[in-house]
């Protein structure tokens, strides 16, 4: 059984959706293989903060400042209802490319630690408001998980996995992925695509239906 998900570390809905999905899987007492695919929301950002999230919302989505602020506050409230305390308004937006490269490395070398790493990066960005493009921050996260700092720094200081990230993002374009998060659940050769951060209970029902084979009858 496998779950593949397209997300970005600058996307609060990706954080919320993954948190809900992981809780659904845990409550069903299931074991899945997890794979994160990159989908950079702000691919032109640099490794140092260049602006506030409010400014980005105004520029990217054409929102008025009041509407952008309301959107940010509402996102924080939604997260809190799920038990996630995030400080979205003070997020220090930077490139997420290094974080995605690191996820690729961990997936290939320490796959059982993938979700731990992903959640740690989300927490660093949305709760602690650290600069996730910073190699030092990413190395600290890995050390906290018991990984070798020298190995991680060696990888991050090179261009390793940059090409793999680009290939995944090109694949997303070919597949028609236009928004994140997006999840692909594979169970017993059956596949279900879930676009968006569904509620935990909805994720549970979808997984149970996929396992039982009831999903096909509900889609007819």
Question: Main attributes?
Answer:
220 residues; alpha+beta; Glutaredoxin; 4-stranded mixed sheet; 4 strands; globular
Please provide a written account of the structure:
- The structure is a single chain.
- Strand 3 and strand 4 form a beta hairpin.
- Strands 2-1-3-4 form a four-stranded mixed sheet, sandwiched between helices.
- It is built from ten helices and four strands.
- It starts with a strand and ends with a helix.
- The protein is 54% helix and 11% strand.
- The relative contact order is 0.18.
- It has one domain (2-219): Glutaredoxin, CATH 3.40.30.10.
- It is an alpha+beta fold and 220 residues long.
- The mean pLDDT is 93.
- Helix 2 (53-61) crosses helix 3 (65-81) and helix 4 (97-109) runs antiparallel to helix 5 (114-126).
């Amino acid at each position: 059984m496998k779950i593949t998900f397209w997300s970005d570390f600058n996307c609060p809905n990706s954080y919320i959706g993954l948190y809900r999905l992981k809780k659904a899987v845990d409550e069903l007492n299931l074991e899945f293989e997890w794979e994160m695919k990159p989908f950079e929301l702000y691919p032109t950002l640099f490794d140092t903060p260049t602006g506030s999230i409010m400014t980005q919302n105004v520029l990217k989505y054409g929102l008025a400042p009041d509407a952008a602020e309301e959107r940010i506050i509402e996102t924080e409230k939604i997260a809190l209802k799920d038990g996630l305390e995030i400080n979205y308004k003070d997020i220090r937006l930077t490139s997420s490319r290094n974080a995605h490269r690191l996820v690729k490395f961990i997936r290939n070398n320490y796959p059982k630690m993938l979700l731990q790493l992903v959640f740690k990066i989300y927490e660093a960005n949305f709760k602690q408001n650290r600069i996730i493009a910073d190699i030092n921050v990413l190395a600290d996260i890995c050390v906290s998980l018991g990984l070798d700092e020298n190995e991680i720094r060696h990888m991050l200081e090179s261009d390793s996995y940059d090409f793999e990230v680009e290939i995944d993002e090109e694949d997303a374009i070919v597949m028609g992925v236009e928004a994140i998060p997006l999840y692909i659940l594979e169970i017993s050769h059956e596949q279900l695509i879930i676009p968006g951060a569904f509620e935990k209970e909805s994720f549970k029902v979808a997984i149970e239906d996929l396992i039982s084979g009831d999903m096909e009858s509900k889609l007819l």
